Amino acid sequence: MTMTKWWIEGGIFVTMTPQEPVVKGHLVVENDRIVYIGAEHPGKLAEGASRISGSGLVFMPGLINTHGHAAMSLLRGYADDMVLQDWLQTKIWPMEGNFTDQDVYWGSALSALEMLKSGTTAFVDMYDHMNEVAKVVEQSGMRAVLTRGVIGLCPEDVQRAKLEEAVRFVQEWNGKADGRIMTMMSPHAPYTCPPAYIEQIVQAAHDLDVPLHTHMSETAAEVEQNVRDYGSRPVEHLDKLGLFSRPSLVAHAVHLNDDEIALLAERGVAVSHNAASNLKLASGIARVPELLKAGVTVSLGTDGAASNNNLDIFDEIRLAALIHKGVTGDPTAVPALEALRLGTVYGARAIWQQDQIGMLQVGMKADMIALDLDQPQFYPRTDIVSHLVYAASGRDVRHVWVNGVQVLKDRKAVLLDEEKIMAEAQRCYERLTNKV
Ligand SMILES: N[C@@H](CCSC[C@H]1O[C@@H](n2cnc3c(=O)[nH]cnc32)[C@H](O)[C@@H]1O)C(=O)O
Ligand SMILES: [Zn+2]
Question: What is this model's ipTM?
Fold first, then answer.
């Protein structure tokens, strides 16, 4: 393998490390890893490196989106302003029922493009036709944790077939694309999977030695129904079924009581906070300050583009910093640096990759983004972290690298064909809407 080496000369680096959150200086990457970051000239380490000027740019770790359904970008704007159960049952599921491999491929490619262009370098995806999503990840150069989510509201033979498909997906893709693809197992939610089915999925995760992912406690109605059907709230229910006996990541976790927060902390369960989706579907607002105080890893997710309706993690960072202040009446809730950690360091923790990504530090993978600082919203130069949280958006992202490879250059995707993806996604949508 030929060695690649590049050197960012003279930039501002928001490293997200506890020791030195902001560094003005230099960064050197060799192959897929950061080999130098610091104020001093890198000296010998920069020998033979190609030089990139860091002037006018701010660099930070790539953002991590810990919950979504990439192909749902095909349904962006298709069914807005509805309540979750009605939205899923009358609009989304009937459309998804007609999705082909091609639809999932182009829908996921559209999302990959949008994510890259707004600074997301790693994402979690729970969906169907997952081979297509994996191909998109492979081609786009992104990093992802993928899982064939299963809904168990079907006869046992269909349940079994879905579970086998999910297992095969893990066997085929875990660790692929130079390690950029990792996998999980996922019951879609406690209200769509009977308890015995959840136990089978948990067992499969044990056998395969992969983590678990699910939607949990998204709406008050879900919690009530869980109590009616199973005699306990979703957290206790899933705990009894063994879901938290493995590394697990739960999306939403909006309706939690104090005991449930304590249990999630005790079991080391990570939460994906999907603020925009929860607001849009009027599901509620997660108790993020309390979760953080209890020591739960809280990360950020967009959920599908049909309930957001974009995939910009900068939006989620800003929302996380704002709504919890509004809800608690405490302006110190989720301060700027903590909000930025939700989208970076904690995101990495939530997908068990904190030793690899989420910070700019020697030895870490070079998953990094650069934003254009020479824009009015970033003047005057007061506090760069504050600017990234309260003033920035994904549209400010100019360059993106994943695993040491530049995948976005001057706002253009390097490995994806932007025009073709948008045209094909449009065609998929038109074909799908003619079917129903
Ligand atoms: N179609 C598969 C399940 C795929 S898992 C991903 C599912 O999550 C659904 N989904 C998207 N957003 C949400 C949400 O916020 N809550 C619950 N389900 C969601 C989405 O519509 C999709 O069907 C099967 O039948 O087994
Ligand atoms: Zn979801």
Answer: 0.97
